[in-house]
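This week, study the protein below.
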Amino acid sequence: MRAFFAEHVDRLIVCQLPSYSPDLNPKVALLGAIEYLWRKVKGLATHNKYHAQFAHLITSVDAALNHFSQTPALVQQLFKSYLAASDLQPQRA
């Protein structure tokens, strides 16, 4: 890649970005909120739990996702918490 960039330096500007930083781009703020939700799913389904078989893990994750599908107010609260922590404002599509 460096050789390619060197050959095309007249028309390319290379900027190094952090490997993971959804908070730097408000357009991807939803990704950060999804991280909040995944943390809760992991807490319900996998944290400090032993699953002897992969099928048990799948069942546990499915149950956690089902829990959140039945409690939309909790999901909305998670997203609001993320927006508040990142100083972002919710926007209507």
